[in-house]
Amino acid sequence: MDAITGRHAANGSPMASRTTTNARQLFTEEMSADVVTSSLGPDTDPRVRRVLTSLVRHLHAFVKEVQLTDREWEAGIEFLTATGQKCDDLRQEFILLSDVLGVSMLVETINHRAVREATEQTVLGPFHLVSSPDRPLGADINLTGTGKPCLVTGSVRDIDGRPVPGATVDVWQADADGFYDVQKPEEIPERNLRGLFRTDAAGDFWFRTIVPRYYPIPVDGPVGDLLRATGRHPYRPAHIHFIVEAPGFETVTTHIFHAEDPYLDSDAVFGVKESLIRTFAEVDDEDRAAAFAMPNPFHEVRFDCVLRPSGATSRTARA
Ligand code: BEZ
Ligand code: FE
Fold first, then answer.
1. What is the DSSP secondary structure assignment for residue 120, as one 8-state letter?
2. Is residue 96 within 6 Å of ligand 1 at its C-beta?
3. Whose CA is nearest to atom 3 of ligand 1?
4. What does each of the 319 residues of the chain score in pLDDT, given as a tens digit?
5. What sign results for the dihedral spanned by CA atoms 265, 271, 276, 281?
């Protein structure tokens, strides 16, 4: 019987050898993180060991730094419980929490560091829930007829400027009131403002849509409470989402942002990168309008996407 724990220890077991060598490491404030990390078994996967050891060290340092009270610990547990309870097939409150704490953008940024002039990435967001419908080049993805008509033209190229024909360009955006189709399935037609296009032989694509508008991230859950408690607004600056994919290249998940948006400098999820800001110009040109089946005048924006070759990103690659 172990004199301290009251537990039986077989001869030769770790408990027996600890007792005999007097190497017992009991929990103390000073040694708290070491006590926990040294409990990891010898067969723990090395990456799991590295991540968990660091997590425990940072968590313990945090608790000590702020001198976390019992009540604050309870509030934290209640907050995380409510965050989990808010999740379902259509709602991922934990990702939203990661987004508003800047963790999603940090993970994104360290895993996709800028490589030459390749298009930068930004957050995927929670609204790419459904696959976009295949659409021919030039299609209008606005199924409701509301909003300011906008022509999007662009190209997909490699980092040496060569066109990438046959690349898929997956597009989705919120409507003129700031809602994605999946947020209001009774009111907004399914697959509104979504489309999956393929670049032509010259690596070009174009489609018709509406000028995006800023909109709030969902605030009817614990993340909304957090924003209100900390005096933060919930808005994302106006943007159009893209996922551009082609064999032999790294897939790019990104947005283009409206250059005149009032929330460019204070995106609720920190997704804005300078290189992704675009002008949605007003165009008054009957011939161009007719060529693209647009009403005149209309808005137009260009997105030239540059793909990096597969395997070009590494954790250490820096611009
Ligand atoms: C979005 O742009 O769709 C989005 C991104 C992060 C959180 C909420 C929404
Ligand atoms: Fe969005």
1. P
2. yes
3. 125
4. 333 333 333 344 444 444 445 577 899 999 999 999 999 999 999 999 999 999 999 999 999 999 999 999 999 999 999 999 999 887 889 999 999 999 999 999 998 888 879 999 999 998 887 788 999 999 999 999 899 999 999 999 999 999 999 999 999 999 999 999 988 999 999 999 999 999 999 999 999 999 999 999 999 999 999 999 999 999 999 999 999 999 999 999 999 999 999 999 999 999 999 999 999 999 999 999 999 999 999 999 999 999 999 976 544 433 2
5. negative
Domain span including residue 274: 104-307
Query: Crossing angle of helices 93-100/222-229, nearest 10°?
Result: 20
Atom nearest to 104 CA in ligand 1? 6
Is residue 13 in a domain? no
Instruction: Establish if 55 belongs to a structural domain.
Output: no
Number of domains comprising the chain: 1
Write the CATH number for 262: 2.60.130.10
Cα 217 to ligand 1 centre (Å):
6
Give the residue, out of 92, 95, 108, 127, with the most ligand 1 atoms within 8 A of its beta carbon, to mutate for a pocket test: 127
The partner residues of 300 in beta bridges, in order of sequence, read 151, 281
Q: How far apart are CA 203 and CA 154, in angstroms?
A: 9
Residue type, 171: V
Q: Is 125 in the pocket of ligand 1 (CB under 6 A)?
A: yes
Determine the distance separating the centroid of ligand 1 and the alpha carbon of 275, expressed in angstroms: 19
Residue 88 placed within a domain: no
Q: Residue of the nearest CA to atom 4 in ligand 1?
A: 125
